Amino acid sequence: MGDLAKSIANAIESSGYSLADLSKMTGIHRSQLHRFRSGDFKRYSKNLSLLCKTLQIEDKNATIDRDLSLAAHSLWDGTLDGKKKLIRVLESLAEFR
User: b/e per residue, 22-61, with b = 16+ CB within 10 A?
Assistant: First the structure.
């Protein structure tokens, strides 16, 4: 996600917005914005997606994460038991990597 952090840092700098400005605009805490800007994150989260949208940054990982999330959600029956089963299936599949 290093390229994404660079894109975020560049977009923040070129936007002229401070982290305080972005925090007010997005509702994301300044400390989390700082972590995003410095690359201190491992997963694509809802807040990271919101920041990218606000800064008009498109990232291929975001598209992959959204597609994966939608695919997993389409398999889920909406129950807690179904969620646990789906997680077990996905964890089992991870063993084949």
Answer: bbeebebeeebbeebbeeebeebeebbeebbeebebebee
- Is the sign of the CA dihedral 28, 53, 35, 47 positive or negative? positive
Contact 69/62 with Cβ under 8 angstroms? no
Give the type of residue at 74: S
What is the per-residue pLDDT across 19-42, written as a single tens digit (0 to 9) for each?
999 999 999 999 999 999 999 988
d(Cα 2, Cα 61) in Å, to the nearest integer?
11
Q: Are 76 and 52 in contact (CB under 8 A)?
A: no
C-alpha 18: how far from chain center: 21
Residues 34-89 pLDDT 10s: 999 999 988 778 899 889 989 998 766 666 667 777 888 888 898 999 999 999 99
